[in-house]
Amino acid sequence: MSHMNPYVYIAFIPLLPLFVFLLLGLFGRRYFKTSSGTTGTISLLVTAALSIYAAYQYFFVSGKTDGVYQKIIAMKYTWLQFSPNVSIDMGIILDPISVMMIVVVSFVSLMVHIFSLGYMKGEERFATYFAFLSLFTFSMLGLVLSSNIFQIYIFWELVGVSSYLLIGFYFEKPSAVAASKKAFIVTRFADLGFLVGILILAFYSGTLDFGVLISRLTSLQSPEFLAITSASFMGASMLTWGLVLVFIGGAGKSAMFPLHVWLPDAMEGPTPVSALIHAATMVVAGVFLVARLFPVFCFDPSALQVVTYTGVFSALIAAVIACTQTDIKRILAFSTMSQIGFMMFALGVSQYGGEQGLGYMASMFHLFTHAFFKSLLFLCAGAVIHLVHSNNMKDMGGLRKIMPVTHISFLIACLAISGIPPFSGFFSKEDILLAAYHSNKLVYAIAVFTSALTAFYMFRLYYAIFWSKGVPSSAAPHGEAAMSMKIPLVILAVCSLLGGFVPIASWVTSDGLPLHTGIDMAFSALPVLLALGGITLATYLYKSENDRPEKIASSLGSFYKLVYHKFYIDEVYLFITKKIIFNCIGAPAAWIDKHIVDGFMNLLASVTEKISYLIKGMQSGKLQNYALYFFCGIVGLAVLFIYITHN
Amino acid sequence: MNLSLLIILPTLTAISVLFCKGLKQVRTVSLIGASAQFLSSVGLLMVYWKERAAGNGSQFLFETNISWFAPLNIHYHVGVDGISVAMILLTAFVVIAGVLVSWTQETLNKEFFFLLLLLSVGAYGYFLSLDLFTLFFFLEVAVIPKYLLIGIWGSGKKEYSAMKLALMLMAGSALVFVGLMGLYFNTHVNGVHSFDMVEISKLHIDPEIQNLFFPFAFVGFGIFTALFPFHTWVPDGHSSAPTAASMFLAGISMKLGGYGCLRVATYLMPDAAHYYAPVIILLATIAIIYGAFATMMQKDLKYINAYSSVSHCGFVLLGIGMLTQTSINGAVLQMVSHGLMTALFFAAIGMIYSRTHTRMVQHLGGLLKVMPFISTIFVIAGLCSLGLPGFSGFVAEVTVFVGSWQNPDQWYRLATILACASIVVTAVYILRAAGRSVMGPITDSHFNGLADASWSEKLAAGILITGIVAIGVAPFWIYQLIGPGTEFIVQHFGKFVTLK
Asked: What average pLDDT does the segment B110-136 reach?
């Protein structure tokens, strides 16, 4: 590295949380019993400040060359040299998406750290909690800055394990342990696709470096491109296979159908963790991965189709399920899945460059705004749960009276996610819908419907928590939470309100050139009106206690039941794993090993014993003797062999 | 550096243990001896690097060659390349950790430590030998103590397990012996037969002869490293063995086999290795998948780790069978990684067992609450086993995967994908074991008063974790160490065999 490199400080953005993780992980229990929270928070404050400075430097000072935002390799070290050309490097890539992501990740992480100071107060493993949060932040920052496809896989696994550790934080609860296990295994299964996808892409492109890989696989004349598109397997080119397999990894992390089953259960973790990992950052890693490889995806329409339909279907199914759930965190989890579906299909309908690249920009824009309003929703839910000690919305109601800050923040977030102007979600969702409209009318129709449904179930949730009944008696008498929990709510509420005015379109685009977008009133009218309709319906049904929801549910009959049980997808998985894999593969493997393979060995041994007994009339039964005969026998055979081969 | 030091040190320690009185003296002397080995192994790494940095490009460094038994042309010929240095480091790590976890060994402690140290003599001698006969001699030195260690200090059906292990390893040795004889009688250096690996590697043995003797050598060594279907000594042997012996068995002994498969069978008989590669890959893939599924059904922690060793050692054989430089690098890395990781795993299981007196997953629970240190190392060992980045297992596995994928044969690709799929099954059984035994509510009120790790146990775990993390976080150093060694093997391959 030359001393001219102005980006060296960026290495500290991920390394600082890593250092805090090691410090708190090794010494936290003894030396930082109470100060671990502030230690973690202060270090995150530095990280967030550095990230924002980096964004300033990149977007306003030195990121552009000839008006185009560049991909800058801030640093790169060889980590594992497989062969002269193929190596895993640890590097830092700066481009619009990575710079945007470090800001989002470190900012939301900071908010969650501050919130956790109050929320986790008195927890016995306070230091461990902050150590894990730091580990996650390190891994996530490393993930978005990765310059090498295997580097991203490494951090991908690390965010997975941080998520595992945090979901299972309350390890004495069997449900938390089960949820953490499920999350890890489902995403691991998806990562298998990612790994094989990497192997395919790396084999044909002859590199693991993102820059080289993308340039080789996007130039029509390059031998690598010709090789990967001409080779095919089962009717699809190897490029399609590679990209779809990589996408499966992304779909697992981003909880896309049918790999979404882990996300609702992951809500067993502490609520601030859900806000950080399972709402704002880790779950969008799949979207980020597709965006990272987007130039290559653009050369393979069939892979993009897979992305589109997976995304839009997940968005719809999650929104439908969310309408029937009663656990507030699970509703938010399904809503996350639905919103990520929006980001995913926005990428799918996009193309590379210029106006055609609107979907790409919209996806990143939505990722940006969603991070604020969704983490805000979760943190509000955390404040509510902290107060009423329940996750079930039936135990809530009327809370607007005793928690005004939470109430207003939650309302702002609900309006943002519903796409009501001028809240942030409106702008990003409009761009997504516009991109879908220009590319695929079916996708557009489903998306508009889903977005109306979003408004409905979010306000159902809002009314159930803050209106409906009177204040539940179980609510703690002390009223709204500590200051440390209120501050992040207010900050995030401001972001959710104003985030839509951040000119992402001029910064984060597929080709690095600014994109000019404006709000088309005529186009926006329909989605906004439908969203308002959803809100009105929710108001009618849920604002005050009444029996209308019950009636509707019973009139829908078995369909309602089907949705309420999340289409029985979990049960299907349980059947496959428990009945098929355990009973039909695992158990026979263990049985065969014990009775057939080992049985054969034992038979061999007893036959040898019998024979030696017969021949020698041995009395001792001592192993040494058997071993000796055995040995001599085989050596004798050997000598025989050698004579045969010699003559 | 005089390599014989690495054989003399443990021998002297073992002998002086015999003259000690009482546990305190015995363990102090053993620890001093193990530390001396440890330091000299690290010293060996340093001088090896220094020599390479100085531009010494010969295949083996620090060679000593003394005629031992002239009529049969047997030599005491020792020397090291990067692969053997890595294996020696592994041995030193496991030996010192093994001595530390046996710190409170009460019964027959003198004999126990003597046998442990004798085993390490065998391992060091084996990894240093360049003469096939000497190599075989040390292999046998490493086998016999295992029988006694399990038979005397073991648990459960220990006599059966000890017998089974000894018989199967003896059979392996016998097969190896046949293979070595085949090599010996078919080489003529200056008119005499030779056991010398360096000499033999320069010759091109008739491929038909190679094809005849390769299976003997490979299967023989393969039995040591749990080659399917000759792996059944592994679960019984490991689970009956006392903790330190399990660590030695899985950490060192199984690696003797992998090393032999590579250094003797594959290196000296390249045509045959190429000829039999599909069979090796088939058996390795079966071991990986089938071992993983069999692990999933186990209920005893030691059986879980033993079966998972079958699966993990499959990667070693897969890497060798794929015959690319990257895959062979991966095989060597996997040997080192698995050695450290599985030793740590057995150490943690031993610590749990010595306190709770059970290893059955369903009887354990909530240990993280009462013994956080031991539970944490158990989880770390598990995470390493499932190939989490940051630990050595990941580095080794991805190297095998990437190396295997370089082999463009369609069927080999399928084998690679199946091997990759094992990472999911591994996650299932590791997380099940961890979830049931160390997490969840405390299942037995007796667990409440149990003590966490002692200083010696903490030190042992710390040493092993240092090794695991040193490879996992900064793999480039070990890559540079073993790279030149495997390059010689692959170049040697290129001389005789044209690969597709």
From this structure: 91
Sequence-separated (6 or more) residues with CB below 8 Å from residue A414: A377, A458, A459, A461, A462
In this prediction the pTM is 0.92
Other beta carbons within 10 angstroms of residue B446's beta carbon come to 11
B439, closest residue in chain A (CA to CA): A171
Mean pLDDT, residues B154-180 taken together: 86
Please give the DSSP secondary-structure letter assigned to residue B131.
B
CB contact under 8 A, A81 and B298: no
**Is there a contact between B428 and A631 if contact means CB atoms under 8 Å apart?**
no
* Nearest by CB: A593 against B212, B294, B442: B294
Tell me which of B143, B232, B234, B364 to substitute to probe the interface with A (most A C-beta atoms closer than 10 Å).
B232
**pLDDT over 60 (residue B234):** yes
pLDDT at A373: 93
CB neighbour class for A40 (10 Å; exposed up to 12, middle 13-18, buried from 19): buried
Point out the residue among A191, A597, A602 whose CB comes nearest to the CB of B229. Answer: A597
Would you call A158 and B395 a contact, using CB atoms and an 8 Å cutoff? Answer: no
Closest by CA to A216, choosing from A306, A151, A293, A144, is: A293
Q: 3-state secondary structure string, A459-492? A: HHHHHHHHCECCCCCCCCCCCCCCHHHHHHHHHH
Query: Taking CB atoms and an 8 Å limit, are A593 and B232 in contact across chains?
Result: yes
d(CA B249, CA B171) in angstroms, rounded, equals 17
State both tokens at B419.
């091997």
Q: Are B489 and B84 in contact (CB under 8 A)?
A: no
Residue B352 and residue B301 in contact, taking contact as beta carbons nearer than 8 Å? yes
Cβ neighbors of A505 (< 8 A, separation 6 or more) are: A361, A365, A431, A514, A515, A516, A517
- Asked if the C-beta of B428 comes within 8 angstroms of chain A's C-beta atoms, the answer is yes
HEC per residue, A241-277: HHHHHHHHHHHHHCCCCCCCCHHHHHHHCCHHHHHHH
- Do β-strands A232-233 and A87-94 pair in parallel, antiparallel, or remain unpaired? unpaired
Q: What 3-state class would DSSP assign to A299?
A: coil
Q: Is the pLDDT of residue B210 over 80?
A: yes
CA dihedral A24, A27, A32, A38 (to 10 degrees): -20
- Chain A CB contacts of B417 below 8 Å: 196
Nearest to B170 among A191, A630, A642 (CB): A630
Phi and psi for A249 in degrees, rounded to 5? -55, -45
From A137's Cα to the closest Cα of chain B, the distance in A is 16
**Mean pLDDT, range B47-69, rounded to an integer:** 86
For residue B113, which of B305, B248, B254, B255 has the smallest C-alpha distance? B248
**Residue of chain B with shortest Cα separation from A189:** B424
B380 touches chain A (CB under 8 A): no
Q: How far apart are CA B482 and CA B484, in angstroms?
A: 6
Q: How far is CA A468 from CA A367, A397, A400, A538, in A?
A: 32, 5, 10, 11
Q: Radius of gyration of chain B from Cα atoms?
A: 21
ipTM score: 0.92
